[in-house]
Amino acid sequence: MRKNIVAGNWKMNKTLQEGLALATELDEALKGTTPNCDVVIGTPFIHLASVAAAIDTTKIGVAAQNCADKESGAYTGEISAAMVKSTGAAYVILGHSERREYYHETSEILNSKVALALANGLTPIYCCGEALDIRNANTQNAFVQTQLEETVFNLSTEDFKKIVIAYEPIWAIGTGVTASTEQAQEMLAFIRSIIAAKFGKDVADSTSILYGGSCNAKNAPELFAQPDIDGGLIGGASLKVADFKAIIDAF
Ligand code: 13P
Questions:
Q1: Which of 4, 30, 41, 55 lies most in the core, judged by the most C-beta atoms within 10 Å?
Q2: Best substitution site from 5, 6, 9 to test ligand 1's pocket, by max atoms within 8 Å of Cβ?
């Protein structure tokens, strides 16, 4: 059966010292507990190695928030999937709407990133989700389907089985407006149905699909109780241990 996952995305927050303090505090908070979900923290690149060395990575997986679409070479400022892997990180968040919007990441670029992540043994947490105008036009299903068809649906079944999907409606990110439980469940069930159509029911049933967008300690229990919601990708609420731990405990 598929895994439940609560993954934090710190985005561009926390200095190295602050990030280390946050990670070690979470590590302490989880000591002696057995969460009913996998726990992941997505830190800035420069934190990855220090954080991975400071915590029990068998209990808290470490994720990068991006990786390069090139393998290596003269790409000043870029961080490759192999470099991410060498820090001790096991995951990489790819296709986040902020990267698609502000850094112009296209499906073509994302296909390279996903392929390089997989080739280097990283688990991609692959994000999809629509903007408000698309939701208002009620065309969100077709939009998300296209996002997936242009990218991760091109993977082989074996590779697709290695990825995690995160649905994050852009209108719910950082806005305090969460998708209703019904909207989130409906979309995740739809995503699972198109995975089933493409890769078969067994693959769909074993794919972890997360919801992201103003997920917090209050709304997590109801969201996570839905049959197709296998966890959350958490932004703001992952920056405080008490809040993030409460979301983990929602499982
Ligand atoms: P918030 O939880 O702050 O809305 O962010 C969600 C998100 O974008 C996680 O990747």
A1: 41
A2: 9
